[in-house]
Write a structure and sequence with these properties.
The protein is α/β, with parallel strands linked by helices. The chain has a single domain, classed as Transcription Regulator spoIIAA (2-Layer Sandwich), CATH 3.30.750. 44% of the residues lie in helices and 23% in strands. The protein is built from four helices and five strands; from the N terminus they run ββαβαβαβα. The protein has a five-stranded mixed sheet, sandwiched between helices. Strand 2, helix 1 and strand 3 form a beta-alpha-beta unit.
Amino acid sequence: MPVAVERIEPCIYLVKLPETLLLEDIYVMSDHLRVLINEDQAKFHVVISDLAKLKKLPFDLQAMSKTIPPDRVGSFVLHLPPIARLLLQMVTRMTGHPIVMCDSYESALTQARALIERQKGVVT
């Protein structure tokens, strides 16, 4: 099953990862996400990632960190498997991009909306 990417609302996107995530999947996901961002003409965006099915992921931290674009103002993660926790902490340190772990979709969406609203006040 490939990575699923969908628009929740303008500037907020949901990514659902498969059981096995390959580096190629990350690149395809990034390209698909960029298409949606361009369609929205978004100056910034937030991604909510659902890792409920994830069991295997690539450990190429440098390549993974390069897929986080500068216009992403936040990342929220649901259903984080223990193996991925350390990896996300390392990616956060490498990129300086905060990744917030959330207990529920509703919590992630609420935080994403608040972040987008704050960002709108900064970018005029």
